[in-house]
Design a protein that fits this description.
This protein is mainly α. It is 54% helix and 4% strand. Helix 1 packs antiparallel against helix 2 and helix 2 runs antiparallel to helix 6.
Amino acid sequence: MALGGLNPRTLAQKCVCEFWMMCLFVMIGVGTAMSNVQSNCAGTVSPGTCGNTTLSGLSSINPRVFQIALAFGSAIMVLVFASWSLSGGHINTVVTTALMCSGHCSIPEGLALIGSQFAGAMAGCALLAGMIPSDKDGSGGNFGTNQVASGFSQGNAFCGEFVMSFALMFVIYHTAVFQNHKTDSVWANKVKQFAPIAIGMTVFCAHCVLIPITGCSINPFRSLAPLIVGEIRGLPPANTSWDDLWVFFVAPTVAGMLAGLVFPLCWATDEKADDVIRRKTQTDLNIKSDPMSKATQNPIANPRPMRPSRPAQPAPTTQAAPALPTMGPTSVITDSPSLVLQSHDGPMDATQLHQDDAYVVNQDEELPPTVTI
């Protein structure tokens, strides 16, 4: 039985895809923040003594801001391309929530995908825990968790996470969801084919802005899963991720819900007007591409092309049948190549018989010299 009208097999495939994509995303993004140990952290015995260097905006302390931002953005671009045709490439509970609000994803399917995303994030963090020991954690033993940096308030963090999450959903709706019907444009509806690039670059830009402030979340499970696994392994006492966790859940989720409600009310209205333009433009294109139709509308300006005339064929010549002696009333003579029927009215050749459909005469058959009918 289908869940909410969905095919269970198709839904299972989507869930497995989202699980795997989220696992890879966490491993690539959070793993980049953890794998490269800074020089000021090298040789540190107790985790956390050098601090979370990923939260620093000073290039002398943290030259990896660009590297981490590029890793998150590139991961999203590649993984969305890979999962686009199967699950839609959500890889973010904010995206799934927004699509449910706008009606592009059913609630049962959305809840199933959200559960798969959380499981994938936990699996990715578990693999990172097995890959990178605590004393080699480049985030200062904080397991790449998100927390508000020193000197910034939770209000500052909320504003940044909300704006960047809304910007991400704006790009997603206007590239991956919005139907661009302008057939007279060079791009037409091909913008959707480049949507993963635009989405990945948006994530990259968001990380460039927010890494020094919050480490950049814009994805609740990206913040929750490292925090759970890091707590199990042991976080530094100065880590405030649990206190700041509500910011990384509420701000992106509210931004996604708002974008999901704004799209059908405001942004999607462009699709209707655009569809009218599409129909009118398509009619014009059909006229331009069909010269016969265009000539029908304006035969004077666009005369119908003349077909080449065929060469005249010579008229067939007929030869009169030779006169034959008068025979009996009903005799057929086959001595000559043309068969002649002798009737009461005189001789009649085989051509006349065939045209009158009186008899079917086969000249190839060998008949006796005279056949009496």
